Amino acid sequence: LQRDPEQKEFQEAVFEVLDTLTPVLEKHPEYIAQNILERLVEPERAIQFRVPWQDDQGNWQVNRGYRVQFNSAIGPYKGGLRFHPTVNLSVVKFLGFEQILKNSLTTLPIGGAKGGSDFDPKGKSDGEVMRFCQSFMTELQRHIGPDIDVPAGDIGVGGREIGYLYGQYKRLNFSQNGVLTGKGMTYGGSKIRTEATGFGLLYYVKALLEAQGDSLNGKKVKISGSGNVATYATQKAAELGATVITVSDSDGFVYDPKGIDYKIVQDIKEGYRGRIKEYAERQESATYHEGSVWDFDVAYDVALPCATQNEISLDEAKMMQKDGVKYVAEGANMPSVPEAIDFYHEHGILFGPAKAANAGGVAVSALEMSQNSERLAWTASEVDNKLKEIMTNIFKASEKACEVYDLGKNYQAGANIAGFEKVATAMTAQGLV
Ligand code: NDP
Q: How many Å is the maximal CA-CA distance in the chain?
């Protein structure tokens, strides 16, 4: 870690995990002898490449592409691609590192990776996005494959981008295979993959609340973001009896005390790539506000951050407590700063960390890989039932680790330990790799 002191996001993600692993290391001295931690924080491979493309005006543009293949101890590398101007090596490494333990928690045989580019799809034409994706895949295709590394979507990479990336992969490799997940229904995609992270988050929250003898029925929920995760978290929260009172984007947020209608969000974001303020123009009960949704003072019970990293500061965590929040579960990756997480623990706010709570997306991606290998397509209810079971089991595995290591209700530490134990066992079995 001393080699990369400037990689702030990566350091934050690593320390969040290392801080919780002491009890496991005490129980397993062989992990220390075999230097597991130092090996775990060093990616097996980090690829950086030039992505040249041409805009609609004929200008030649260049972006930077990345793929960090972090750990393959338990299966082929798996993790999304993010297209956003904030993407750099530190961000990709933090996401790839998180992905190792998250993928382990799903119990499916997938290793950890992440990738992306500082390209911003926002405001670009379909033609520009297609030319960018084709150029990005022209390099990436050398490094991936259905048994090697299977990327998926993340911020800025949805169905449109996956389609263009897949088309180019196929063209260059003369093969039809499940090299990407999040594909469209007409060419090998899985039912429920679009909804999986948001639905999975709510299945996790349901299990978390039930373990406290509580339920989502009648709860008020704040959600941030209005992308893929936020939209389907909003849908499932309402189906489970909660009222979602906010959604947001990077400009501002919408407050609707009657409950956000996910179909309007879906239409704005997926239908015509609009901005969330248009929601308030379409729904009388809603108002639009600039700034962060976490600074908005209103009573509620459950916070589900679904936008991006470090969106919740310590002051915003304090405001949550004042507003009556009892549960925080992370749809986004690392949305709470470390001081906010400490505050949750110190003040009895039960916390579901990203690597457990948002694992539903990658879990269904792995189910998409299975369907592609079998050349079969499962029904929506088959996939949804498996997703429910996986998310409930992730909560139970974290809860069990809390019992075994005497961690109370620190489900964050429980998730880290449950995910780590499997990876460490696999790394130990495979020797000095
Ligand atoms: P989308 O691109 O679909 O949506 C991202 C949403 O977050 C948008 O509303 C966007 O607003 C907002 N956002 C992005 N950056 C910022 C920022 N700096 N400040 C405020 N708002 C911001 O992405 P996803 O929904 O797929 O991903 C959201 C989070 O969930 C990410 O952390 C991602 O890593 C995580 N995740 C996603 C999974 C998936 O399956 N998609 C799986 C597991 C985790 P705007 O349009 O203004 O940029």
A: 63
